[in-house]
Amino acid sequence: METELIKLIQENGYFSVGKTEEIVKQEFFIPNLTNIVKKVIVNCVPCILANKKTGKKEGFLNHISKESIPLSTNHVDSIGPLPSTNKSYQHIFNVVDAFTKFTWLYSVKTVSAESALERLKQQQKTFGNPIRIISGRGSAFTSKLFNEYFDEENIQHLQITTGVPRGNGQVERIHRSFDSSSHQAIIRQLDEIVQIRRQITENTK
Prior knowledge:
The chain is an alpha/beta fold. It is built from 9 helices and 5 strands; from the N terminus they run ααααβββαβααβαα. It has a 5-stranded mixed beta sheet, sandwiched between helices. The longest helix is centred in the last third of the chain and has 24 residues, at about 180-205. The chain is elongated, with a radius of gyration of 29 Å. The mean pLDDT is about 75. This is RNA-directed DNA polymerase. It is an enzyme of class 2 (transferase). GO terms for molecular function: nucleic acid binding; RNA-directed DNA polymerase activity. Its EC number is 2.7.7.49. It comes from Trichonephila clavipes (Golden silk orbweaver).
């Protein structure tokens, strides 16, 4: 009978536990009232639907606008660890131009901020700085050193939402295109290319 009474009161307004208790106590004395009211409200479908969420409202994911200009927006990420080469390269730092989808692969020994910045500076010497760089939230990309460099070079740094890898989908597609057997061969070829480039540079000084 107590349960039916509380249900009847709830049907008139879908009140909170405290408010419902207050209304009941005006006319009745029911032992263990709080627990009975809570049980009724927990199982009351209209009450659940009427109860609005409190706190900060969820917003929409921000869409990252991109210029229709080559080399204005770059996506960056790292692949690895991979089987080590003779020179201890175990990772690939990749850069993808958002507009042309042109991809650069750089062999690196670690995924540190220093390694990433070394390759970005190498990229800068040939192509200049992009307007923005989009990255994940790995320790290298969230480091103070990494973000100080962007501030100095006036590059906008955008980081994808945690758990939403498609936010950096340009490089994620590159990752999927590699199979495990090709990783080491790619790194070795990159290592050879770096050595050839150094020799050409030295010979033309």
